[in-house]
Amino acid sequence: MRTLVSTLCIFLLACSGLAFAQAQPKPYKIAILEFDPVTSEAVKDNLGRVTAEFLITAAVNSGSFGVVERAAIKKVLDEMQFGQGSNAPGSVAQAIGTMVGAQGVLTGSVAKNGNSVRLDARLVDVASGSIVAARNAYAKGDLRSIATASELLVSQLEGDLSRLTPVAPKPEPKPEDKPSAAPSLQPEIKSQENQPVISEEKQPAQ
After folding, report:
1. What DSSP string describes 23-57?
2. I need a surface site. Which of 19, 26, 110, 176 has the fewest CB within 10 A?
3. Number of domains within the chain
4. Is residue 29 part of a domain?
5. Which of 68-72, 74-78, 115-119, 197-201 has the highest mean pLDDT?
6. What is the tens place of the pLDDT at every residue in 43-79?
């Protein structure tokens, strides 16, 4: 009896876990490329790679994004002989996203001038190849500040997800749910056919 109860409990827990998993929306899957360093200081400090790493960590921790492994992205980029940078037209980003099974590709650039850093992020939709979101953030030259700016970018992109993921259409009502036709208000007219004929009895002549 105890074994039966334990088995039943395990079954109910598994069913509830499956229902919970089905109720949770799937994260938006993205591939994050290395950002392009557009100033000599950014190149010197390797900020393109650093920014990408910070963005990956922030995106994974957000729970709203699924992130493609960097090894899979590197393999695709090597096959395309495109390098690790993200200064790519939409068609290239679209091809990369398709090959790694992503819904979007996050590209961008990073510039550093003295102690000021600017991050520009662009999210390319894989289905259309167009940029569907563009955000920027500023930071100081230290790593902590750049990490904080990367988290801000991811938070802003989370806000854009509402228009990136269309709302599922409402199901149409079933035929039995549709209201039946209103009863006719016209009085029922009975057919005169097959009605008994009542003949008038003739009176005798006087």
Report:
1. HSPPPEEEEEPBPEE-SHHHHHTTHHHHHHHHHHH
2. 176
3. 1
4. yes
5. 115-119
6. 999 999 999 999 999 999 999 999 999 899 988 888 8
Q: Does the pLDDT at position 133 exceed 70?
A: yes
Q: Is residue 99 part of a domain?
A: yes
CATH number at residue 152: 3.40.50.10070
pLDDT band at residue 162 using 50, 70 and 90 as cut-offs: confident
Check the CA dihedral 149-154-157-158 and report its sign: negative
In 3-state terms, what secondary structure has residue 152? Answer: helix
More confident residue, 190 or 147: 147
Look up residue 88 and give its two tokens: 């790519």
Establish if 206 belongs to a structural domain. no
Point out which residues pair with 29 in neighbouring strands. Answer: 66
Find out whether 140 and 117 touch, Cβ atoms under 8 Å: yes
| Residue-number span of the structural domain to which 132 is assigned | 25-160
Rounded Cα distance, 52 and 85, in Å: 10
Dist CA 69 CA 33 (whole Å): 11
